[in-house]
UniProtKB/TrEMBL annotation:
A Pfam match: DNA_ligase_aden
Limits of the NAD-dependent DNA ligase N-terminal domain: 1-170
UniProt-listed Enzyme Commission number(s): 6.5.1.2
Group of enzyme by EC: ligase
Keywords per UniProt: DNA replication, Ligase, NAD
Gene3D superfamilies: DNA ligase/mRNA capping enzyme, Nucleic acid-binding proteins
Protein name: DNA ligase (NAD(+))
Species: Paraglomus occultum
BP GO annotations: DNA repair; DNA replication
Any GO molecular function: DNA ligase (NAD+) activity
Length: 170
């Protein structure tokens, strides 16, 4: 939810002697979860990932990089962050993060900061498909060195796939 929309909604709530919204992020989240239809809450989002249902012979295939994925999302008409970039070294990344941090207060939406992703999707290991509590899992992310080190994972190890709270695969 954009900041200006949040302010507009709270002004409307004041007129109606209703409870004010705490912040734009909670307002957007609550708007999506409510069972009562809400009008006039202009929600916006940036798409960052595209999944395919391989069981239905999708015409789109997996992407080799995050950049490729974002470009396809744009081509399909989704809004993506206008500031996404691909870098060749850590110094470029650091400069970009500093620049974005200086612009943060001027954004028309709240932000926790810059998301940095490894652009090479080969860091996602493909698994034989597993159906787990109604979800089909066929990839595992291998980008978190601390996670791998803390579990002493090695090439060739067998792993158990479970869901945290019946939602997030682990």
């Amino acid at each position: 939810m954009k900041k200006e929309e949040f302010i507009r909604l709270n002004k409307e709530l004041i007129k109606n002697n209703s409870k004010l919204l705490a912040n734009p992020r909670n307002a957007a989240s609550g708007s999506l979860r409510t069972l009562v239809p809400l009008q006039n809450r202009n929600l916006h989002f940036f798409a960052y990932q595209l999944f395919f249902d391989n069981d239905r012979n999708s015409t789109y295939q997996s992407f080799n990089s995050q950049l490729e994925c974002l470009q396809k999302l744009e081509e399909l008409g989704f809004a993506v962050s206008p500031d996404y970039r691909s870098f060749t070294g850590i110094q470029e990344v650091k400069k970009f993060v500093e620049k974005q941090e200086s612009k943060r207060d001027g954004l028309d939406f709240e932000s926790d900061g810059v998301v940095i992703k490894v652009n090479d999707h080969s860091y996602y290991e493909k698994l034989e498909p597993v159906v787990l509590v109604g979800s089909r899992i066929n990839k595992a992310t291998l980008h978190n060195y601390a996670f791998i080190r803390n579990r002493a994972l090695n090439i060739g190890d067998e792993v158990v796939i479970k869901k945290a709270g019946d939602v997030i695969p682990q």
